[in-house]
Amino acid sequence: MRITFILPGRGKNPVGGFKVVYEYANGLTQRGHDVSVVHPALLYIDTPLIDYPKRLAKYLQVKVDHSYLPTSWFSIDPRVRMLWRWSLDQKHIPDADVVIATSWQTAEWVANYPKSKGRKSYLLQHWENWGGVSEERLRQTWKLPLQKFVISRWLQDIAVDLGETAEYVPNGLDFTRFGLDISIEQRNPASVFMLYHEQIWKGSADGLCALEMVRSCRPDLRLDLFGTPKKPADLPSWIEYHRLPSQTELRALYNQNGIFLSPSWGEGWPLPPAEAMQCGAAVVATDIGGHREYLEDGVNGILRPRKNPSVLADAVLQLINDPELRITYAKRGHQSIQQFTWTCACDRLERFLMSLVKP
Prior knowledge:
The protein has helices at 16-30, 52-65, 104-110, 135-142, 153-161, 204-217, 247-256, 271-278, 289-292, 309-321, 323-336, 342-357; strands spanning 2-6, 34-42, 81-87, 98-101, 119-124, 147-150, 166-168, 188-195, 222-227, 239-243, 257-262, 282-286, 302-304. The protein has 359 residues and is of the alpha/beta class. The protein has two domains: 2-172 and 342-357, Glycogen Phosphorylase B (Rossmann fold, 3-Layer(aba) Sandwich); 184-339, 3-Layer(aba) Sandwich (Rossmann fold), CATH 3.40.50. The longest helix is centred in the C-terminal third of the chain and has 16 residues, at 342-357. This is Glycosyltransferase family 4 protein.
């Protein structure tokens, strides 16, 4: 098959949703399919003309320096066609058997493509109610005549509520990139790792507040924080910040910490907690649909209500003060996460896409 993925921008910096697409691009290419990944300079279908000069300048700059590629954080199979395009107008899109939108903005373009661009599909990784989009506009993209597939059961439920059908294709994980290097028992029980993100719904402020509470009870607490933004100016000196760590550095950080905290208010299928489980950290996370894809409270981790730093603090303290419980959850998590492989994910997606192009 000829398959085209339509991404909502550049892949220069690590983004979980982009990583999923790149994994699929690699996996489907290795199965003999012809895969293209399109990155646009002009994303919105209704971009005002006044914005065009600025966008055009950026487009030309990136066309020269190739900064749309994920060179620093992801290895793309050289057979994948990585394309930088001015916009997502049909004239910039290669002909294919299947074309896949990957965000609400890209879905609006894909819905208008001619048949030559392929059967129209839509990879839904979140309810993307951020960035100023209205709930109604977002809802309408879910109801476009595109063949939908989702990464989580909770997203599938949204589709059903909207009167739509969506294939369930859970994410996979790369077990060559992340794994257990330092034994779970040998780790500092008072060491925590967490993602820092500037989007409020990622819950970073809640996580930091919770860990301040933990530190008031356990002054020996140490926290490693990682993310793509610059180090926050007001970050306390006891917190170590790692900006844009390499895959090797990230694996080491997952391995050297006993606990991973994920305080997000909403996730499609979050990769960092799953990667932490691959590397042997016990996970404390908010009780949201994305986390429930692979975490079960009291079985292989701890789930607590979102937007509630005090209950997250209590859960982290529980694991710090009860090493045997931390070890139990970490071991169970490490074992249970093994089922999510990219081989299984690509199997599911390939079957779904093949069903779309059957005569």
